[in-house]
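Try it yourself: sequence plus zinc ion, in.
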Amino acid sequence: MIRYECDKCGKSLAANDRQRYIVKMEIFAAADHVDLDVEAVADPKLEMAKVLSQLAAADPDEIEDQTYRAFRYDLCDDCRRTFLRNPLG
Ligand SMILES: [Zn+2]
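Structure, out:
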């Protein structure tokens, strides 16, 4: 039997436990995309090469952190109530 534990307090929970709740959170950049005004850039190819060079040198985890992250937590009923009172802690 699969067992879970509350990610907040550590209480043991069964898979279909009525006291087990799942919290899913996503955090992502509010801006859809960055506009690059090609006509305002003196050398668009050079500018694109700079951007690609910066991306190649960047830490992939840091790029992901800046764009999208998803989290999933199991909570017991007591911790669910606490979470709902103040989700941002
Ligand atoms: Zn708990």
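One thing you can check immediately is this: The chain has one domain: 3-85.
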